[in-house]
Write a structure and sequence with these properties.
The complex is a heterodimer of chains A (128) and B (184). By secondary structure, chain A is an alpha/beta fold. Chain A contains four helices and eight strands, in the order ββββαββαβαβα. By secondary structure, chain B is an alpha+beta fold. Chain B has one domain: 2-Layer Sandwich (Heat Shock Protein 90). Chain B has four helices and seven strands, in the order βαβααββαβββ. In chain B, a hairpin with a 5-residue loop joins strand 5 and strand 6. The chains are: A alpha/beta (128), B alpha+beta (184). Chains A and B meet through helix 2 and helix 3 of A and helix 3 and helix 4 of B.
């Protein structure tokens, strides 16, 4: 099942929700608010959300985008769910390293590894 | 993954930042070597901020700044302008943000000033501390310092001067002081 929203491309595989950004730059304040609302709606629609967010094609972000991701992560945790991030370019991963958010988020190189970690519960291959 | 290193430069560059306007012919010849200061003033709206940001980045591209420099500049400009609009001017459209910048092949200096009462960057909580990692905000100054060669706030705390050297241009125009901090 696939559903295209303005800022997100959402795909379901079983009970796992996969999300990709349709904008290369998730930087814009307007974009961020909209993306945050859409991600929140996805999380709140699930009993125990299992969410994979892919950064494929994203070439920029700001601290506002990081703040939105943290808010989503907190919402997922509050619902006893799990969040995985993947396909983050080295340049953007550097932002996660500088802010030490690589220790907060579970980040995987590819969507395949992120999905495997959700299915198996293992953390092999997690980027730190 | 290998540790990533971000250069953080300290020291004051303010003495270098005074525009020395001379007779017209002299000014034009100086433009190539030291650049001229340009100024923009806009109401506290993010769309206006992005317009100025894009204008500055476009000029940097013309001065042969590389992709890595452009990423760093975009990030730092976004943080400085967003802070000025949201925290400084409280998003009040009647309040303005002033951006003054000078671009050469060697370096870019950008001053971002708001009409707010300012803040003291020295007392900002460390956003990388364990107890602050889940806070949704407070990373803008950290990112500016990590990606720029120099970040200087005025004493009132309502103006910040960002300096970035063009990494793809080796001119010997070295930073005044330089320390390296390891992350990860």
């Amino acid at each position: 099942m696939q559903q295209d929203a303005a800022r997100l491309k959402v795909t379901r595989e079983g009970d796992i929700v996969q999300v990709e950004f349709t904008s290369r730059k998730i930087l814009d304040e307007g974009n961020i608010a909209e993306i945050g609302d859409q991600l929140s709606a996805l999380v709140e629609a699930e009993h125990r959300p299992r969410l994979v967010i892919s950064f494929a094609g994203v070439d920029h972000l700001s601290s506002a985008a990081l703040g939105t991701l943290i808010t989503i992560n907190n919402k997922v945790k509050n619902r006893d769910g799990q969040l995985r991030l993947c396909n983050i370019s080295p340049q953007i991963f550097e932002v996660f390293l500088i802010t030490k958010l690589n220790t907060l988020f579970h980040i995987y190189p590819t969507i395949k590894e992120a999905l495997e970690s959700l299915r198996s519960g293992a953390q092999a291959g997690r980027l730190q | 993954m290998r540790p990533v290193f971000a250069r953080v430069v300290t020291g004051t560059l303010m003495k270098h930042l005074k525009l020395q306007a001379g007779p017209r012919g002299r000014r034009e010849s100086r433009e190539k070597t030291v650049g001229l200061w340009c100024s923009e003033e806009f109401p506290s709206q993010m769309a206006e901020g992005r317009r100025v940001e894009e204008k500055i980045l476009s000029q940097c591209r013309k001065h042969a700044y590389g992709q890595r420099d452009l990423f760093a500049l975009k990030l730092a400009l976004e943080e400085a302008i967003s802070n000025a609009i949201r925290h400084g001017n409280k998003s009040t459209p009647s309040k303005h943000v002033r951006v003054k910048y000078r671009i050469t092949r060697e370096r870019i200096d950008v001053m971002v000033e708001d009409e707010g009462s300012g803040f003291d960057p020295a007392v900002l909580p460390d956003p990388t501390a364990d107890q602050n990692l889940q806070r949704a905000c407070g990373r803008g100054v950290l990112l500016m310092r990590a990606y720029m060669n120099n970040v200087v706030f005025n004493s009132a705390g309502n103006s910040v001067m960002l300096t970035k050297f063009n990494e793809s241009h080796s001119s010997g125009d070295a930073p005044i002081s330089n320390t390296t901090v390891a992350f990860g």
